[in-house]
Amino acid sequence: MENKKEALELMRRYETIKLKEIKESWRKGLNVNPAQELTGFGNQSTCTLCRAMPGEYGCGHCFWYDMSPVHCNAIGISGETYCNIRLASTPIELYHAYRARARYMRKVYKEWRKNESTN
User: Fold this and answer.
1) 108 against 2, higher pLDDT
2) Is the four-CA dihedral 82, 87, 91, 96 of positive or negative sign?
């Protein structure tokens, strides 16, 4: 995994982002995507995890791919938590979506660490 440090930082960001920050970004209007502005979410050119990947690696060595058999926006809970951030229509929805994504990332990370220690 090439972006473990960035994944841990992103989890912490999702866990600690304040509703006030989200509301401030939301007030900027239609020209700003709050999820992207606050965490780089949703675009390979701004995503914290994508940007940390050396060019030749791509998704194949990302936190999401190494930790679970799916990509960041794939099916199941990964896709659900991704879509909840993307589709949040109010600051409070985005706040809760960030928290849910952080919980899911932590769960995946803990399972991965557990598996690593038994191998």
Assistant:
1) 108
2) negative
* Model confidence pLDDT, tens digit, residues 22-34: 999 999 877 778 9
Here the contacts of 12-21 (C-beta below 8 Å, separation 24 or greater) are 13/39, 13/48, 14/39, 14/98, 14/99, 14/101, 14/102, 14/105, 15/98, 15/99, 15/102, 17/95, 17/98, 19/91, 19/92, 19/95
DSSP string, the chain: ---HHHHHHHHHHHHH--HHHHHHHHTT-TT--HHHHHH-TT-TTT-HHHHTS-TTTGGGGSHHHHHSSS-TT-SHHHHHHHHHHHT--SHHHHHHHHHHHHHHHHHHHHHHHHHHHH-
Q: What pLDDT digit, counting tens, does each position of 55-79 carry?
A: 665 677 777 766 666 666 666 667 7
Residue 29 amino acid letter: G
Confidence at residue 34, expressed as pLDDT on a 0 to 100 scale: 92
